[in-house]
Design brief:
This protein is of the alpha+beta class. It has one domain: Glutaredoxin, CATH 3.40.30.10. The protein binds FE2/S2 (inorganic) cluster. The site of FE2/S2 (inorganic) cluster has 12 residues, from loops. It comes from Flavobacterium endophyticum.
Length: 85
């Protein structure tokens, strides 16, 4: 069962390759989190290179234990709707 106040953490890989591509999806999620007042339920963090640089940018969603690769703004929108609302 889904806990209502469970904190979610979105980890953006901040390695050399992902770091080049993650600004757009990260900014999008930050904007949506603020817009929906989810700041105390969702936080955005960063992680080191995960060895999947060919799939940059890489995102990890906790506590769902979900990896997302090649995260564009469009994919960030899906992540927001599916996992953060
Ligand atoms: S830089 Fe992100 S997986 Fe390597």
């Amino acid at each position: 069962m889904k806990k209502k106040n469970e904190e979610k953490i979105i980890f953006f890989c901040n390695g050399k390759k992902c770091g080049k591509y993650n600004k757009e999806p990260k900014d999008y999620l930050k904007k949506k989190i603020a817009e929906f007042g989810l700041e105390d339920k969702v936080c955005i963090s960063k992680m080191d290179c995960q060895g999947m640089c060919k799939k940059a940018p890489v995102v990890y969603i906790e506590p769902k234990d979900i990896w997302k690769k090649e995260v564009t703004e469009k994919k960030a929108k899906k992540i927001f709707e599916k996992y953060l609302l």
